[in-house]
Amino acid sequence: MAHHQEDSNTLPEATTASLTIPVVDFSLYSSDPSECARQIGEASQNIGFFYLKNHGVPQDLIDRMFNCSERFFQQPLQNKSKHLIGPHNIGYSPLESETLDPEHQTQGDLKDYPADADGRTLIDRAYNVRKYSIQDDSTVYFTLGDEAERDKVGVFFKELHRLAKDIMQCFAIALQVPESTGGRHFFDKRHGWDAHSGTTLRFLHYPQQSGDPKTPLAGSHTDYGSITLLMQKDIAGLEVQASRIHKDVPWVSAPVIPDTILINIADHLQMWTNGLLKSTMHRVVYNPQQLHHSRYSIACFIHANDDTRLEPIPSPLITQEMRAEGVEFEEGRNMTAGEYLGWRLNRSYNYSVKSV
Ligand SMILES: O=C(O)CCC(=O)C(=O)O
Ligand SMILES: [Fe+2]
């Protein structure tokens, strides 16, 4: 593996310089778009993560969504499992404690989660909403039957999607995509709200439990789409691997920074740029504060339209010789975004995923 990383075409990979996650002031997007694009482009080529402040998504809306999530997950198991996740990747996805991979998943003491009649212990993990499901029963079930709140979930999801499209313009500016091939709209026009895509809003819950500091609660992975927008609340736990090539670099924690949204580059952008932008490995580890408190986060996985090919984009900064490391990159570069999502999900769930 990674034989091509050793030669003189090795990617420009920052090491020590990239061990912090920068904070970008997104008010620059209006006042000085090229500077905004420069800062976002730099972070994306280095650590692959950046915080955005002044992102324009109202904080009271974010708080309201966290409140919804808490109300939902604090219920007993039988009230949460009507819309179980299935082929459409919508609804509740618990983990079954017996099937956890001991190396990569929670090892905490979950005695607050009693076994059900079949002897299984189910542990909360997430609830997924997709563009197609914002008006559905599955979303109103998540808001405990409150239709006004259900509508807010839709408003929130669209706000995040709008922000993602603005961020996409910064990538296109930073990558100098020629006007003749779409210019600054190269990426955002491939992310239609009304188009079929894997874009998913995921409410995550890491239950209160005992455990050892640094025990992985979510194994290391990259995200499958273009970018991910992450909101964390109160309790940190996310860690980022600053380099996929230099495995000995330390994991960097991504603390909770109030009033920011954390953005990370995901696999599509890595493939579109032949590895110039980094889809960085990350994981969630046990935080001792979880002895007394649940950890909540909200991730919005933005995916390109299903029919978009994940091939290198027109940019003078991207050359054919560049390659990103990883099986995802080798497999995915011949696929469309829709095919790639199906391939990744089928590797992580034990049912076949169909596109919606
Ligand atoms: O919960 C978090 O902080 C991150 C979750 C994550 O990386 C994911 O769901 O892909
Ligand atoms: Fe992730």
From TrEMBL:
Example GO molecular function: metal ion binding
Any matching Pfam family: DIOX_N
Keyword tRNA processing: no
Entry keyword set: Iron, Metal-binding, Oxidoreductase
Residues in Fe2OG dioxygenase domain copies: 197-304
Residue spans of biased composition, Basic and acidic residues class: 101-115
Renumbered residue ranges of the record's region Disordered: 94-115
Isomerase as UniProt keyword: no
InterPro entries with a match to the protein in the record: DIOX_N, IPNS-like_FE2OG_OXY, IPNS-like_sf, Iron_ascorbate_oxido_reductase, Oxoglu/Fe-dep_dioxygenase_dom
PANTHER family, sorted: 2-OXOGLUTARATE (2OG) AND FE(II)-DEPENDENT OXYGENASE SUPERFAMILY PROTEIN-RELATED
Similarity field: Belongs to the iron/ascorbate-dependent oxidoreductase family.
Protein name: Fe2OG dioxygenase domain-containing protein
Annotated source species: Modicella reniformis
Organism taxonomic ancestry: Eukaryota, Fungi, Fungi incertae sedis, Mucoromycota, Mortierellomycotina
